[in-house]
Amino acid sequence: MHSIYFDHSGTTPVHPAVAEEMYRYITGDSFGNPSSIHKYGLRIREDLKEAREKVASALGADVDEIVFTSGGTESDNMAIHGAAQVNKNRGNHIITSAVEHHAVLNTVKALGKAGFDITILPVDQYGMVSIDDVAAAITDKTILITIMHANNEVGTIMPIAQIGQLAQECKIIFHVDAVQSVGKIPVNVDDLKVDLLSLSGHKINGPKGVGALYIRKGTNWRQTLLHGGAQERLRRAGTENIPGIMGLAKAIELAMEERETEGARLIGLRDKLIHGLLSIGDVKLTGHPTKRLPNHASFLFKYIEGESMLLSLDMKGIAASTGSACTTGSLEPSHVLTAMGVPPEEAHGSLRITLGKDNTEEDIDYFLDVIKPIIEKLRDMSPLKD
Ligand SMILES: *Cc1c(COP(=O)(O)O)cnc(C)c1O
User: How far is the CA of 47 from the centre of ligand 1 (A)?
Assistant: First the structure.
């Protein structure tokens, strides 16, 4: 029986070396609290510093610019709330895009309800934001721009460096959700000209429930969500999730070491998969044809419900996704596909295949073998096809 995992944008398996690293901090005497001044605490404080250095060096950041959080969602919330609340006296306008992850989109919308003026930029047919639209949206009241690096549903990579340049010229704080791009494509905070950047452990073969927020030195940002102790230099209260942080640091270190070779390998597999699927009729690639994540392939199948495809694939031992984990159990079409101009009846036929380190060429061959009869059968039964 095959068992193939093709849902790495949803979450990834924990790398064995990451699990080993975490185990060291769950068992034995590496349980200290880094805020304690005895030897148990001091030892962990040293290890925590090393972990912070690993994350900082992966991003081209300084060690003091990294704050550990409970994941991508918290990093996004912290970044946006912290920048918005502290700069209220300068202006109340926030710019984001229509294809952001809900951790960003719903945070910005909540601020909209709380009196902030928000602009949600449209995207083109590939899910791409245009620089001209960003430039046109900026006013003298704009205090924050938050745009994702790479989209989780359709894999499109946004022109972050150019938006960063614009934000810098206009002295506007720039936040980037880089949860999908870290470890897959170059992410350097200076090259991208970002002030705040979110990442998450479980999308890079690390543990769930841990992430980080990069905060550029000098950024007018303040922690506004969690009140408590002085951990993380007063930027995130609460005793640190040490096993999680150690796992995250190991995961990002491994991802950096392997990024170039692994990226090239995944592009090869991805393109074989895209080529194979597009040779079937009435199938469209979603997202940008070239500016997309190395491991990401997403499609629209005419006359088919994505969910039926997932069930059929699951019976063949293949775990895929319709695009967004959040749409499971909801009949609402994806906000990303909708923003790209896909009509609702077509949006329901979405399939997302996201590859990872354990996937092989045999997996792709097997998938292409089994998907064809599945599509034929589902289309034969389809009331959508007359
Ligand atoms: C998964 C994801 C998040 C949320 O991260 P969690 O660690 O699961 O909270 C945020 N943004 C993007 C783009 C994601 O893919």
Answer: 26
Q: Please check the confidence at residue 136 and state whether its pLDDT lies above 70.
A: yes
Q: What is the pLDDT of residue 239?
A: 96
Tell whether domain 4-11+258-381 is in CATH 3.90.1150.10.
yes
In angstroms, how far is CA 112 from the centroid of its own chain? Answer: 23
Write out 222-266 in H/E/C secondary structure: CCCCCCCCCHHHHCCCCCCCHHHHHHHHHHHHHHHHHHHHHHHHH
Is-contact 354 4, C-beta < 8 A? no
Decide: 323 in ligand 1 pocket, CB within 6 A.
Answer: no
Half-sphere exposure of 237 (CA within 13 A, CB side): 9
Q: What is the pLDDT of residue 276?
A: 97
Alpha helices in 90-130 (DSSP H): 102-113
Beta strands in the chain (DSSP E): 4-5, 66-69, 93-97, 117-121, 142-146, 173-177, 196-200, 211-215, 283-285, 296-301, 318-319, 350-354
Supply 69's token pair. 């959080």
Determine the Cα–Cα distance for residues 79 and 112; give it in Å rounded to an integer: 16
- pLDDT (0 to 100) of residue 1: 80
In this structure, are residues 225 and 153 in contact, taking their beta carbons and an 8 Å threshold? no
Can you tell me the distance from the alpha carbon of 272 to that of 232, in angstroms, rounded to the nearest whole number? 45
What are the domain boundaries of the chain?
Answer: 4-11+258-381, 16-254
Q: Give 31-48 pLDDT, tens digit per residue.
A: 999 999 999 999 999 999
Residue 182 Cβ < 6 Å to ligand 1: no
CATH class of the domain comprising 16-254: alpha beta
Domain 4-11+258-381 shares a fold with domain 16-254: no
- Per the rule left: phi > 0, alpha: psi between -120 and 50, beta: everything else, 328 is beta
Continuous segment of H or E residues that includes residue 368: helix 361-381
pLDDT reported for residue 326: 46
Residue whose CB lies within 8 A of the most ligand 1 atoms, among 11, 14, 203, for a mutation test: 203
